[in-house]
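JOB MANIFEST
job_type = single_chain_structure
chain_count = 1
residues = 414
[input]
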Amino acid sequence: MLLRDYRDLEISGATPLARDAFERALDSHLSWRSGAQAHLERAALDAPRFTMAYVLRAYFSLCNRDRARIGNARTDHEIASRLPATPREQLHIAAIGAALADDFESFQAILRRLSAQYPRDVLALQIGHALDYLTGDIEGMGTRITAALPAWSKGVSGYHAVLAMQAFSLVECEQYEAAADQAQRALEINPWDVRAHHALTHVYEMTGNPSAGVRWMRERRAFWALDTVAATHCWWHWALFQLALGQTQAALALYDRRVRGTGSREISDLIDSSALLWRLELVGGDTGNRWRELAAAWAPHIEDGYCSFSDLHAMLAFVGAGDFRAAGRLERELLQSSTQRTRHGETTRLVGLPACRGLIAFGHGEYAQAIEFLGVLPAHAHRIGGSHAQRDLLCLTALQAHRRMRRPARPIAA
């Protein structure tokens, strides 16, 4: 007889000890806490034929924008494919296979089937939610969790994470009061859920209340800044609040100490660094030589050909540094990608290539051309993924281009 997980779903090949370690890994992953990998390694060590341990580890590799790391999921997928699996586990294995084949339509369809058949499969909800975010499926993000919620209640393990997912979905659907309520409910269950803290931060950002946002983050700093995989991104949000308050030097200090202080090469950290430094540039902050270091960190990803959101932020760094040779290399790569009938090819055609060309024009001081490129994006901008707060950068750049056309300013490259 198979063991069952904490949500009463059958799991193949587990021991009680391995199951408990798996659940700790899963909750860390759901809450954006550190240590998930270590818990999962203990689960696999105690039960080498524990199918869901390899499934979860494969998802760890898939849940990022780094093409090199995504390839690491192949080994775990191959192992899981050879192990006994329940029908639910077989669907997870098929979903991972579709993702590795870059077949995101099948990936999405399998995850929706999983959630429909097993609404308490919190991992399927988590991965589907992450996929909605990465692909900019705002409508799907809004309906996925809502459809599963009737199967959940406060006593079910992982309920706090489901509420936090719904809170972020509500933010992206511009239902800010409801989003705040759900995030607070999640935190009442688990005060250490960083995802719920993050959702509330987005509420303050999108409702234009930076003072309250800074107070919230300062009061709750012990919960989101320590032993979490999202600390850099949360510091990025704090810096945005400082910019909104006109505290440019404070935001720049946060860039130096918290956002870029470690020199991280993680794609997510590079994205936050580019986004913050560009915003500082737009408001006239003294960015000094910071762009040069950041552009060098992005250079190895010019040929990734995987994620338009990453391409956009790499281009910010190259243009900010005045490195138009690297910018030109990336533009040529994107032009090639735009001819391909792939997921990346489509997002490159719709958003990635025109956005990056707009940024190059902006960097050269060709503001009318920048506006022409950036002006066609709003209808499709969501397709590159990310949040409204992140994609606002394109609108901010277009607005600055309009201002500089009326009152010419030095181009970034000068």
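[summary]
Residues 343-363 form the longest helix (21 residues).
The chain has a mean pLDDT of 95.
exit_status = 0
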